């Protein structure tokens, strides 16, 4: 008898499920963007194609500095910004799992035990009774219009975007560390330069004093030499401050207190890795910020379908079974078995335009993400162009600065020799020494700019260009 009663109820449900579900809302398409045929700053580039799945190598190893390699590893282990990004990713992963759970039924177990007493009425004695019940309840919403599917799609897009954000944070931290590290190493070379300069100026001061003692120079030469020496010593002190601040910045990146962090000085400076000719443009598509922006477009697109699904009725299947009786011992007898099965459908008839407003808001949010995606691509193109140009022009400038430094050193040597011979004033010596020092320090600072441009170019193309390196 029960089977006959249940069959008419199941028939329309099974028919609806067999017919398949309809997914409302637009399907995601990557926003169109016309990339240039090549980059002005380099030959051999080709139009970019989506390739954010390509591996990102350990690009910093190209600098050949084991101290830097160790600092990168420490950053990956202990940087607090990276840990916060990892926590955000785990939240997105949990949200995606929560959305996927919407495809499955919800099942609950309940148990109750109750003792009650009725009042005595018209001479009847009070009655006491016990009631016990054990039940299993289940409900499942059929995703007839794809609302749950679109929610899962949106959560998946958010998860992918969060994963790309995590990669973007890691890449940015690595690039920042490389820049700070080599700025510190450039500062070390400048400190060594000023140590040599101070020693040379001390000898020049001694020379001036000896010439004064010999009666062939004036006190003005000594004053000029002393002023030049003190200025160089003051600049050396300023470099100590610069190095201390850079070391403190690196300490924060590696997740250590600045007071306990130490980085021994090094006078030698590694070379800047050369950019290979014909660097493939698809490396740009590995940029995690571009991937994150594109996946947020996909998530926003899916939310349009979620909003549109609100126009259609929801269908929920409910079922429950269990045992009920006056005592626990009677629970599992056939006569105490209870069950129920049913369908419920809900449909809003009028909501004052709320659903239309939600759909419009979802479409507007999608337009925002599309604009953000295109802006991210434009910024990426700019960064690649800027740093390719910087590396090329700084290399040309470095060659000219090296020639200027060689000429300034020759002029300095000639001025000192002429001063010793009494054919030049000490003002000429100071001018030549200042010119040589300025050229050498400028050349060192230029090396720092080259390292920064190199690190930023690695970041701009998504993390290096040598696919042979392990990610």
Automatic annotation (TrEMBL):
The record ties this protein, via PROSITE patterns, to:
PROKAR_LIPOPROTEIN
- What subcellular compartments does it reside in? Cell membrane
- Give a Pfam family name: OEP
How does the record say this protein sits in the membrane? Lipid-anchor
Q: Indicate the segments annotated as coiled coil, or none if absent.
A: none
Among SUPFAM superfamilies, the record links this protein to: Outer membrane efflux proteins (OEP)
Q: Which domain of life is it from?
A: Bacteria
Listed name of the protein: Outer membrane lipoprotein, NodT
* Species this protein is from: Methyloversatilis universalis (strain ATCC BAA-1314 / DSM 25237 / JCM 13912 / CCUG 52030 / FAM5)
């Amino acid at each position: 008898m029960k089977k006959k009663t249940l069959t008419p109820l199941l028939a329309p449900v099974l028919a609806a499920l067999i017919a398949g579900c309809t997914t409302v809302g637009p399907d995601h398409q990557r926003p169109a963007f016309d990339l240039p045929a090549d980059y002005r700053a380099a030959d051999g580039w080709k139009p970019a194609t989506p390739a954010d799945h390509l591996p990102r190598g350990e690009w910093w190893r190209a600098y050949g500095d084991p101290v830097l390699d160790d600092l990168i590893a420490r950053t990956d282990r202990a940087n607090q910004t990276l840990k916060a990004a990892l926590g955000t990713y785990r939240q997105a992963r949990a949200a995606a799992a929560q959305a996927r759970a919407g495809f499955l039924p919800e099942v609950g177990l309940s148990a109750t035990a109750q003792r009650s007493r009725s009042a005595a009425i018209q001479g009847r004695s009070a009655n006491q009774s016990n009631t016990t019940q054990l039940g299993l309840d289940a409900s499942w919403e059929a995703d007839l219009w794809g609302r749950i599917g679109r929610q899962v799609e949106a959560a998946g897009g958010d998860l992918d975007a969060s994963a790309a954000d995590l990669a973007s944070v890691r890449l940015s931290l690595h690039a920042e560390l490389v820049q700070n590290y080599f700025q510190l190493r450039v500062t070390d070379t400048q400190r060594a330069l000023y140590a040599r300069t101070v020693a040379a100026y001390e000898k020049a001061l001694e020379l001036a004093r000896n010439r004064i003692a010999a009666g062939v120079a004036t006190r003005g030469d000594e004053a000029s030499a002393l002023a030049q020496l003190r200025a160089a010593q003051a600049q050396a002190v300023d470099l100590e401050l610069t190095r201390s601040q850079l070391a403190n910045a690196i300490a924060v990146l590696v997740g250590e207190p600045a007071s306990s962090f130490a980085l021994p000085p090094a006078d030698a400076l590694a070379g800047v890795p050369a950019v290979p000719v014909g660097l493939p443009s698809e490396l740009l598509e590995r940029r995690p910020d571009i991937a994150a922006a594109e996946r947020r477009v996909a998530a926003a697109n899916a939310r349009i379908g979620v909003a549109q699904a609100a126009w259609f009725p929801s269908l929920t299947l409910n079922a429950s079974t269990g045992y009920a009786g006056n005592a626990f011992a009677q629970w599992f007898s056939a006569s105490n078995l209870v069950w129920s099965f049913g369908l419920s459908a809900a449909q809003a008839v009028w909501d004052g335009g709320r659903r239309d407003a939600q759909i419009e808001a979802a479409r507007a949010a999608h337009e925002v993400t599309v604009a953000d995606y295109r802006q991210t691509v434009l910024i990426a193109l700019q960064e690649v162009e800027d740093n390719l140009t910087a590396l090329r022009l700084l290399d040309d400038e470095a060659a000219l600065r090296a020639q200027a430094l060689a000429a300034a050193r020759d002029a300095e040597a000639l001025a000192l020799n002429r001063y010793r011979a009494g054919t030049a004033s000490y003002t000429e010596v100071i001018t030549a020494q200042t010119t040589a020092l300025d050229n050498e320090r400028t050349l060192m600072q230029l090396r720092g700019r080259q390292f920064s441009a190199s690190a930023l170019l690695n970041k701009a193309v998504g993390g290096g260009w040598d696919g042979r390196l392990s990610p």
